[in-house]
Amino acid sequence: MAIKAEYLLAFCRAAKLGSISKAAKTIGVSQPAISRQLQCLQEETGEKLYNRSSQGIELTAYGKELLSYACKVSQTLIEAKNFINGQNSGTISLKLGLSKHLVPSLTMPLLNNLKAYNSNKVKLKLDLIENYSQNLLEQILTDRLDAAYLLTTVDNIPNDLIKLDISEENICLFALPDDPIIRLNNITLDVLDGETLIIPSKISTISRITLKALETESSLPGRILEVSGPGAVRDAVRGGLGVGISLESFIKQEVKAGWLRCAPINNSKMKLTKLLVSSKSELLSTEMQNTLVNIAS
User: Fold this and answer.
1) Region 118-132: what's the mean pLDDT?
2) What are phi and psi of 5, to 5 degrees?
3) Which CATH architecture has domain 169-272?
4) Global pTM?
5) What's the start-to-end Cα distance of the chain, in Å?
6) How confident is the model at residue 78 (pLDDT cuts 50, 70, 90)?
7) Which one, of 92, 135, 142, lies nearest residue 292 by Cα?
8) What secondary structure letter does DSSP report for 47?
9) Phi, then psi, of 231 in degrees rounded to 5
10) Do the domains at 5-84 and 91-155+281-296 have one common CATH topology?
């Protein structure tokens, strides 16, 4: 029985993402094409590999057993491609993801410190990718990223990934300096009643946690304005359009300059953990892991 490697790659991606359509996007083929590949794989094995529902796909017992083999083949293909492209010639190529809220605080320390990491024997080629944490996690699961700095909850990370805690980050409410809403060091969500709340894209972990907390506490902002990202939230608040949510570290410079004021939200759910996450223990040596954690601490 000859099974094409592309069928196993399609199966690995779909299983890890729980979605055939998401897998198609990561591989760069149409959904019908990847569906045909998965159907061919089932025909070759003679076994049902998954069940489909409105929630995505759920692996059968046989599918779960096959998954580890399929992902090993996928990883070998990636490593072979890197070898052919000459990425084994004394150079480590590291694709590193950054959560959008961590870009201002981490970009320059990463570039400065990892430049110093290079030696005569090993050179490090660093490729930084900015995105929301959930998207970065999907890219790690599908081997498109080597590692990423995420802002999320620890229980959101699959157990088979390397997961290094760095620090806890407070979600804060921020506004113009003369806005009376920021009148205490710790404020509650009920101060948002009737206010315009500006949030980044709802795929952002910060937005999802905030919206869930508002629903739980029955707080009702006058309106919620969703913009393209954390930088756009900051700019909209500075433009007087409302109050925003962010991390203290993201607006640190604006607060220091007196352009904005912020206060942590007094809610145990309004905290996130900064993590270094990877699926590639063979690439991230202990030295490299320590370097990346120390940079972000």
Assistant:
1) 73
2) -60, -35
3) 3-Layer(aba) Sandwich (3.40)
4) 0.72
5) 51
6) low
7) 92
8) S
9) -65, -40
10) no
Q: Which three-class secondary structure state does DSSP give residue 231?
A: helix
- 262-297 pLDDT, tens digit per residue, is 988 888 888 889 998 888 665 666 777 777 788 787
Helix (H) or strand (E) holding 169: strand 162-175
Q: How far is CA 168 from CA 8, 11, 165, 232, in A?
A: 38, 35, 8, 24
Distance CA 80, CA 85 (A): 9
Using DSSP's 3-state secondary structure scheme, residue 183 falls into coil
List the single range of 133-137, 216-220, 247-251 with lowest mean pLDDT: 216-220
SS3 240: coil
**How many C-beta neighbours within 10 Å does residue 248 have?**
15
Q: Which CATH architecture has domain 91-155+281-296?
A: 3-Layer(aba) Sandwich (3.40)
Instruction: Write the single-letter amino acid at 201.
Output: S
Cα–Cα distance, 91 to 87 (Å, whole number): 6
Angstrom distance (rounded) from CA 283 to CA 288: 9
Q: What is the DSSP letter of 193?
A: B
